[in-house]
Design goal:
The longest helix has 16 residues. This protein has 443 residues and is an alpha+beta fold. The chain is 20% helix and 33% strand.
Length: 443
């Protein structure tokens, strides 16, 4: 956790909860039209004051050609442009409305044609200081090229199989996004002076559709038409203690690196990325009252697979398959890279909580425990002071079996120890004019 005191600003919503900086325009509603030769996407802001046009070529069967009109139009001007487009394309069927959408998820190509993934329905699931957070309730995948330019390959069994695989990903579960709040970043990073902006936001490890949006981002050099999806968990509730209300938000962000199902991806890769890497953030804030500033706190922790080269065979008949520990990384280079990456992301100290078993009749998890301890010991030899890794062994299985022990109480003591070392992010904010929230004090 960074502990320096800062001053910063974040936008705050007005009475209806819309968190938009009044000096910026976020397009968040779009209408897609088509002619035989092009798709036309019309984008606008919530207040219908800011209108833009995107053009996507449909006559190239296997290339993605996107152009953007940088002019900002009024609603009347947009209607006039659409009318003239229809008149100019009457000989080939005119201009046809396709769908309303709320952002582009990305573009993907398998064997021949590109497909455009769109959010066609959304649902508000919470707000962070007036910035709406949304989930997807419906999405569509639309072929970009016109049917008349496609070859037989576009209808092949292989192409259909790849399409079916992508469509099997249910984007209506566990995905969320925001137009005006960088939900892929922690609150502390969002309030920092050197906040990431623009395309760099999509290169964040917690943006699920980074690859799907790479083509349009590189072509347009902006992110106006797309949304950054985070895969994980978002929940927000209002609680009351001693007649004082406060908001609790839990956000879990799953890394796009070394991703895979729990039993198929284990351990670390050569770049130091671990399987099932999840950042969890708890945000608590109490609304301002009686002239007092709003108080906000945030705590971030991460979880991930043990950063060693290991795996196990999956089997329906064997619920506890043997763990296979690879010996190819004798100097624990990948493990060291993993912790160096954590230091860059979060700073020192790094506290490791190892929950695997201490004793087993047949060595299985204990093999990992011993090797992980060796790895940390080896890395710590070249580290000093606060930079040294703090390693805690806590046998979750043993504590859970003992009825006399309250596991959550015991884990709370561990959490208390960690928080004493790292601190929490805390700040007080006061509402200013023009819808800005001043970050007045932090520790």
């Amino acid at each position: 956790m960074e502990k320096q005191v800062r001053r910063s600003c974040i936008t705050i919503g007005d009475g209806d909860g819309v968190g938009v900086d009044h000096n910026s325009c976020y397009m968040q509603k779009f209408r897609l039209y088509e002619t035989r030769s092009k798709f036309y996407m019309i984008g606008r802001d919530k207040n219908r004051t800011y209108w833009r046009i995107l053009k996507i070529d449909r006559l190239e069967p296997s290339e993605l050609n996107i152009t953007e009109d940088y002019t900002v139009f009024s609603e009347i001007e947009c209607c006039d442009i659409l009318r003239r487009m229809h008149e100019g394309n009457k000989s080939t069927g005119g201009l046809k409305f396709v769908t309303t959408c709320y952002g582009i998820i990305g573009f993907v190509k398998f064997l021949e044609p590109y497909y455009m993934l769109l959010i066609t329905k959304r649902m508000k699931i919470g707000t962070i200081f007036g910035h709406p957070i949304y989930a997807i309730t419906k999405n569509e995948m639309i072929p970009v090229p016109h049917a008349t330019v496609l070859s037989k390959m576009a209808y092949s069994n292989d192409e259909n199989r790849y399409k079916k695989l992508l469509c099997s990903v249910d984007l209506t579960k566990d995905f969320f996004f925001s137009y005006s709040y960088n939900v892929m970043l922690s609150l502390q990073k969002n309030l920092s002076d050197n906040i990431t902006q623009g395309q760099l936001l999509y290169e964040n490890m917690f943006v699920w559709n980074e690859f799907l949006t790479r083509g349009i981002r590189n072509t347009l050099q902006n992110t106006s038409w797309i949304v950054a999806l985070v895969y994980g968990f978002f929940k927000q509730v209002k609680l009351s203690i001693s007649d004082r209300e406060f908001n609790l938000t839990i956000i879990a962000r799953r890394s796009q690196h070394y991703a895979g199902t729990r039993y198929l991806k284990r351990g670390v890769n050569e770049k130091g990325r671990v399987a099932n890497d999840v950042e969890t953030e708890q945000i608590v804030f109490a609304d301002a009252h009686d002239g007092c500033p709003m108080q906000i706190s945030s705590v971030v922790q991460i979880r991930g697979s043990i950063p060693l080269f290991w795996s196990h065979e999956t089997s329906r008949l064997n619920i506890k398959p043997d763990i296979i520990l690879s010996k190819k990384d004798h100097n624990f280079e990948a493990t060291r890279l993993h912790f160096e990456n954590l230091v860059k992301r979060y700073g020192n100290p790094i506290i490791i909580l190892n929950l695997i078993k201490t004793r087993e009749k047949k060595p299985r998890e204990t093999i990992l425990r011993a090797e992980f301890a060796n790895a940390v010991r080896s890395i710590n030899k070249i580290l000093r002071g606060e930079n040294r890794l703090r390693f805690l062994h806590w046998d979750m299985h043993r504590h859970s079996r003992c009825k006399a022990i309250n596991v959550l109480t015991q884990l709370g003591k561990v959490a208390g120890y960690a928080l004493k070392l790292t601190g929490i992010f805390y700040c007080q904010v006061t509402a200013r004019q023009e819808g800005l929230l001043e970050h007045s004090h932090s520790e």
